Amino acid sequence: MDNDTADVTTPTDYITRESNPMDQLISTFLTARSGVYRELAELREEGWKNPQGDKHFQNQRREADEASNKQRRVFYNLMLRIGDELQAATGALSLPTPNAEVLDICMAPGGYSASALKHSSHACVSGITLPSSLGGHLIIIPYGRHDPRVEVRFADITMLAAEYGVADIPENHPDFLNFSLRRPWATKLFDLVFCDGQVLRTHAPHIASYREQCEAGRLTCSQLILAMQRIKPGGTFIMLLHKVEMRKTMKLLSMFDKISKIELFKPLTGHRTRSSFYLIAKNVQPRQPEALVAINEWKAAWKHATFPLPADEGNGKGPDFVEHVRSEVSSLLTSFGERLVELGEPVWQIQGDALRKASWFNSKDANSAGTSARQVGMPSSAHLTRASSMMGNLQIGN
């Protein structure tokens, strides 16, 4: 990515609710080059037709929304096990610096920070997380007087306007009183940065209407900006992502591949049937030109979603935009496509193996609901939304 691309990349590259139509172009490329991806795509198609899958993931969502303290502890312990597995596979939690600093963005309940301290007990952790009053998870990791190595601040990171380059907030903005001009830890740099935030259904009552369709994108941009403006040159960056084969994911991986040494990690401990995975980027160089261009793009995207233009202005979805996206995807596949296959195949293999073994996937009712839905003419967008929710590919509003 160079400076010539900055003025033609639009905020909608990062702020979008539905999968971009260009994702199909990527899928076609991958299907022709990766048997692992091709098999997974076929399994997903089977899964989309399976009503037992809907029931399975609806139950998971309900349990997450109505979690008891005991269930929250189970989830925290799962994070600890994933952290151990991540360390064994990548060594990313071993911090050799004597006074190592860890930043955990969207920290709660704190399992990954606890894992970092387990493998680097000399480190100190700074965490920022959504308060429970706004729908955030409760903190379980000991902090403050219970563990002075851990500091926690409570804030909605999507409202850190000054951090994202906006100092003047219109008084008539629906979130005028919710913005913050503070820049947390503005004078510190961190050896390890976690970004694990997702939009939860418990957030919905606290989100203004203008944010409903783009909150996941706002959160993604907020995490990326804050992380890249705080990470130490040579530091390690870990971020939860979804679907290696999505256009915006491919673009992000391509950028990090230019400024760091990257690998993808999908845990066997949990979430195997989902498309989620972790980007592990080591030796990150946040002052590289490609990184600076990306940060400016994320800031523009955050601003576009947070201060939207009237509906009839600047939506960026005309023929020129579509042609730009097509050209960008073609260029990325040419320069990064083979690398994407190399990175993605281990992730796709794990998900595919897990789907084959899932009890709901092998249900006798596998095809009934999907077939009847198509017979009655279910719109393709509704089908895709249902499928994405079921397979855990997308967050709310993403």
Overview features:
12 helices, 12% strand, 7-stranded mixed β-sheet
Describe this structure as you would to a colleague.
39% of the residues are buried. This protein has helices at residues 3-6, 23-33, 35-48, 51-65, 69-90, 111-119, 215-228, 247-259, 289-306, 319-357, 368-375, 380-391, and strands spanning 101-105, 124-129, 150-154, 190-195, 231-242, 261-265, 276-284. With 398 residues, the protein is an alpha/beta fold. Helix 2 crosses helix 10 (319-357). The protein starts with a helix and ends in a 7-residue tail after the last helix. The chain is globular.
Mean pLDDT: 84
Q: Catalogue the unreliable spans.
A: 1-18, 366-398
* Number of E-type strands: 7
Beta-strand fraction estimate: 5-15%
Q: Work out the radius of gyration.
A: 21 Å
- Largest beta sheet: strand ordering: 3-2-1-4-5-7-6
Envelope shape? globular
> How helical, in percent, are the residues?
40-55%
**How large is the count of helical segments?**
12
Structural class: alpha/beta
Main beta-sheet annotation: 7 strands, mixed
N- to C-terminal distance: 24 Å
Give the helices and strands as they follow along the chain: HHHHHEHEEEHEHEEHHHH
